[in-house]
Design brief:
By secondary structure, the protein is mainly α. The chain contains 14 helices and 2 strands; from the N terminus they run αααβααααβααααααα.
Amino acid sequence: MYEDLGIDFLTAPQAAVGFALLLGAAFGALAEISGFCFRSSLVGDDRRQKSGVWLAALATAILGTQAVVFSGWVDFSDHRFLVSDLPLLAIAIGGVMFGAGMVLTRGCASRLTVLTATGNLRALTVLVVFAITAHATLKGILAPLRTTLGSYTVDIGDATTLAALPGGGLLWAGVIAVLALVFALTSGNRPAMLITGALIGALVPLGWVGTGYVLYDDFDPIALESLSFTSTWADTLFWTVAASSIPAGFGTGLIGGTLIGAFLAAALFRRLAWLSFSSPRETGRYLLGATLMGVGGVLAGGCTVGAGLAGIPTLSIAALLALTAIALGGVLTHALLKPRALQSNLSPAE
């Protein structure tokens, strides 16, 4: 479709950077306003309210994504989420690692990106280590670990999505969306917070349509992408250190936009503040968590946003397994840390 728009001064990949910048800015602002965070929805003191916001986003993302699939605008049949050889071991181990890491660092990659924009130096430190580790797992010294674990696969044939189950995709999308909405509406949130969550969820199908339909160009193709914070941080790191030899991509625009949007929202509501580590022990815990998230996010095929909020709306079995493993890793790590925190009169990892 892109060639029909008559935009001659930008190629499709260049336009994708600008599109991602706007998409990220919207996500950053909305996530800062709502405190959007999967970790908090699992183990936070206000987890019921945070779960309501997260599930409102998920329900909207599912309904919107399946609507664009039904319309024929986007086709996920060749997407990595729908491979028949399921790397079950990598997803399970990676998901648990990521979940453990996000509890140790008190935030997943998307939340830490938002916090970085508000002046949180802990979050910035974590993201630098996270991006380096993710890139090392994708293309560097840790790549053999990824390829080794990824080689243990299970052939699931055509059952790569819930759409393969009796009733078809629309039925299962409706079931998950309705259950998520029921929980969201009974979570005790103010309507404004649920609307904010729904707006975040709407960015997911917008991303799929933007990259898979509006910016689709046979002569200069781009990848089908939406919200994600693992490969995008790795790509941003690579572009940062080699910008003179490689162009910016969708991921770079998404990260940049998220930082800008979160900063503007925090400035508007006067929530900008410098924060740093309080002790060497805390620093070590955060660095360990960052490393676990970097490796785990790549092995699992994405983070709580990439595999969760954006992946589950594709009805991918792999995405469902990844988010389940992440949740399991987070809950178990929190359970292990909580008794130690109470014994030392420290607050648990929240």
